[in-house]
Amino acid sequence: MEREGQSTSQISKYLVINRRTVKKYLAMSEQQYEDFLIKQSERKKELLPYEAFVKERLRLYQDTPCAQMHDWLKEYHSDFPKVNPKTVFNFVNWVRSKYSLPRINIHRQHHPVEELPYGKQAQIDFGEYNLRTSTGTRIKIFFFVLVLSRSRFKYVWFTDSYFTSKLAIQAHEKAFEYIQGIPDETVYDQDKIFIVNENKGDVVLTAEFRAYTREQTFILHFCRKADPQSKGKVENTVKYIKQNFLYNRTFYNIDTLNDDAMGWLGRTANALPHAFTQKAPCSEWIIEQPFLKPYTAIMLKSESVAYTVRKDNTISYKSNLYSLPLGTYTGRGCVVGLRAEQGELILSKNTIELCRHEIDYGKGKKIINTDHKRDKTGAIDEMIEQLCSLMENPDQAKQWMAGIRTDKPRYIRDQLLIIKKTAEQAAPALINKALDYCMNNKITSAMDFKAIVKGYEQQEPSQDTNGTKIISINPLGGALPEGAMVQPEKSRIEDYQIIFKNNNQS
Description:
Radius of gyration: 42 Å
Number of helices: 17
Low-confidence stretches: none
CATH architecture of the largest domain: 2-Layer Sandwich
Strand content: 15-25%
């Protein structure tokens, strides 16, 4: 090859050997290379004393793997030297070649499956893939695949987190909505996302998936362990998605990837004729759709996951830092609830929402809300002090407002403004009376306090600025105050006529 003008790199690639090895061989003369080959064939093997043992074992059990043979050698020979597993592998293969004891591979016999009726079955599987981002780094994405067995109509949904039972249920809902129905049966691997345990066909489902299958009634079929051939249609689809859609694709964010996937399903995966059936899955799906059970959406409740609050009032989520309001961190072990919905992170504490952030799909970023840097506790404390000074019993008022602050922390400013306005417009005696009522009945609402004050005002008569007693009359109340039916005296018209006549004569 060198005499024909080929370079060292070309020879290395063609012979699949290292370039340094090629250079070493080219530096030898023909006689030196022949001596080198003879020396290699006559080289003493370190495991030669165990040749008879290996040969006997291979004759009895011809399908023995090299790893098991290595264990047997250590088990039956206490003096067996410590060698690299590759040395044992090479020696066992040498014994097989010398004594014609090739490894027997048992091939599983398969039989084609008849085409299932329309609407009968869907096959479901999961996959993962490493995509290149716009910055040149790599990110692992995960996807859910559903294929209708008869029409080969496909659906795929991507996520940037590992699948859990709840996330898989969400994927089911999206898939059933896309195919506009539910098949009679769904086929799965024995995945820990769905199964807690399996014993000879007795399957124990996870609590979340068991509850979901009661809502959406379809028959579950789980393949045997290590038996991917039982759902070959979806296995081929997983490979098709990796090689046709994901190969050399740039990742920007998960929403863009799902949008691109919908376009790919419409123009390629479900539009082109299937290699075996020679029919377009979309046209076959139109025929299959009436055979699917009607789909009714189930409202899925997303639960919060506990995240530790850092000392700088932030949480770490997927290699990014998200800010929390100042004062959220209360010491070691402080946590907040986190849930992701529609591209947003919702952070809460004790079921009370603290803030929201738009999810950033990069890494090493700080997503900070500048409003979180402001310490608002001082202003609230000052408002409470001012309000307490308006009350006859400041200590009682402070205790009551502390209860409101605990019960409604997000609306404490609004609550205090309502209390202030009510206290400024009502008599101090009524304010104290309403405050006693709220404390005795554990009422922590400014609106309720305002209503109680108004109720007391209606019960007591009021006086004008001159001290005149004013009585409110309610014609619909049924009872009238004393003197309400007294009729005033009336003047006679004749008296006015006499007066006018006398004035004219004078």
